[in-house]
Amino acid sequence: MPLYGGIEAGGTKFVCIIAENPESVIVESRFSTQTPEDTLSKAVAFFQSESEKLKQPLKALGVACFGPVDLIPSSPTYGYITTTPKAGWKNTDIVGHLKSQLNIPVLFDTDVNAAAFGEYTWGAAQGLEDFLYFTIGTGIGGGALVNGKPLHGMVHPEMGHISLPHSWEKDPFAGTCPFHQDCFEGLACGPAIEKRWGIPAPKLPPNHPAWELEAYYIAEAMRTFICTLSPQRIILGGGVMEQKQLFPMIQKKTLQSLNGYIQSTRLIDNIDEYIIAPQLGNRAGVLGAIALAREAY
């Protein structure tokens, strides 16, 4: 059985696995994101030692990375984390370091594009060619597959930074984004919920007014993406979306916001199958990294 390495490189933690597919995860390691030198060294040591124990070299490594990142293969900074606000990680050469230490092909994409690719390969987007995956948690990011391929474009999508209707009368909260203040991420990410209400999101009861407001902001964002990219499905993951009461609220508010303009049975008759949770759960990112690695062959 061929074995692949996968890294979900997050701003808070790294998750490293060796697997062939979701049913054959051989070994996993999780550790906090420290300095680039310390964190990447731990990842390299994990793959080297575990591959040695298994007496089988890895065929390739996939990396699902927080960003922004450089995904243009011809660029001198391809495989770098670029302008991240994460202290110490700006202009970090992820691909170059891992490739030089492990001497195997390294496939690289954003964490959300990789999660989308994982759902396309094994999860809730099987059989679809055009869909969106969002993670709504510490930050907000969106990945897109178009014709079955992750969308990169000029850089890569940054769907968490679109503008949303913001009623200052109903919601006087200014937002948390250091770049745009009250963008989608600034109004609806986990830290924004905590800062607005003074209580961490997981500790808010299901009937708290926070969730009605959260569902409104997410639904307004969904209307924008439905109208611009016309996805066949939208998958919403991340820590905030573990509040399962959000899904019917978002589905209802999205239909209300569209107001009948988009005429599709996917929306009108099957909204509960259109905006859904990831089938791979919180492992979508790291399993997406494995799916990326398999693309090397």
**Spatial arrangement of strands, main beta sheet:** 3-2-1-4-7
Rg estimate, integer Å: 19 Å
Question: How much helicity do the residues have?
Answer: 25-40%
Biggest pleated-sheet summary? 5 strands, mixed
Strand content: 15-25%
Number of strands: 12
Average residue pLDDT: 95
N→C terminal distance: 14 Å
Report the order of strands and helices: EEEHEEEHEHEEEHHHEHHHEH
Given as residue ranges, the uncertain stretches (5+ residues, pLDDT < 50) are: none
Describe the structure.
The protein is α/β, with parallel strands linked by helices and 297 residues long. It is 36% helix and 19% strand. It has ten helices and twelve strands. β8 (131-136) and β9 (140-146) form a beta hairpin. α1 (36-54) runs parallel beside α2. The radius of gyration is 19 Å and the shape is globular.
How are the secondary structure elements laid out?
Elements: E1 4-9, E2 13-19, E3 25-32, H1 36-54, E4 61-65, E5 80-81, E6 92-93, H2 94-102, E7 106-110, H3 111-122, E8 131-136, E9 140-146, E10 149-150, H4 184-188, H5 190-197, H6 209-229, E11 234-237, H7 246-258, H8 265-268, H9 271-274, E12 275-276, H10 284-294
Parallel strand pairs: 1-4, 4-7, 8-11, 11-12
Antiparallel strand pairs: 1-2, 2-3, 5-6, 8-9, 9-10
Q: Which characteristics define this entry?
A:
297 residues, alpha/beta, five-stranded mixed beta sheet, 12 strands
Task: Write a concise synopsis of the structure shown.
This protein is 36% helix and 19% strand. The relative contact order is 0.16. The model has no long low-confidence stretch (mean pLDDT 95).
